[in-house]
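Sequence and structure are no longer studied apart. To make this concrete, we show below a single chain and its fold as tokens.
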Amino acid sequence: MRYVLTDRLPTDVVELRSLAGQVDEEVRGFRARLAAGEQFTHRDADQLRSLLDARDEITAACRELEHQALRRGEGGCGSKRVVAAAHEAGHAVALVWFDGHVYTAEVFVPENGEPLVGHDGWRWKGHCRAAPLSTVTDTCRGVVTAAGPAAEAVALFGQSPTPAQCDRVLAGQRDHRELTQFALSASTTVSDMLAAALPIVRRCWPAIARLAIEMDAGKVISHADVCAALGLSKDRQMHGFELANLRAGLRAVPEPTCHRV
């Protein structure tokens, strides 16, 4: 089979992924021929170059559609990297929402591949590094932790994920273990913490989407990036007042712009 890149790509993510699968299948065929020591002709080299260019173009188109869906909070994001970025952005935004401080947040999932597996056996999709928690933010630690899987559930299933869908997201995650331990010490439940995190995630979705797209593009997010996404001013002395207004519903999180990062 010879794949030829058409003049106009599909505008549906599922169709784009199907095309990407066709291209990958042919690329694997070329790799198998190389591994077997087969000699390549100039025509083979041109075809392989065309396939790799096509894969890059399809991947870029698919990513842009995923980003558009993420901005709208429609769910259906199939990219593991985009979903992982939304997860870490959820943690970061919730931490700042409760007046905490983010050192860095980033995503580890390769553009085409599975999450990294650490020495502890857990799959590391990304990481959000927080400054030591204050007395106030420590009491909200469970909600901050729950905001990651809550944002992941929204990226996958839309603005109103069901409890079963949230449970599916949590299964096998480090966050589930941490939420369970916190629930035992704080006389609450994992479901209650998710229920408390979801409204925050929905209200802050424009900021979460913006940060997730930046992380998907390879950026390591800082505290200043989270503040900017939430629409806070550059004057840090005003952040407490501005966050109080956000929490009270007197201030809205700005919609993300649709430019490429």
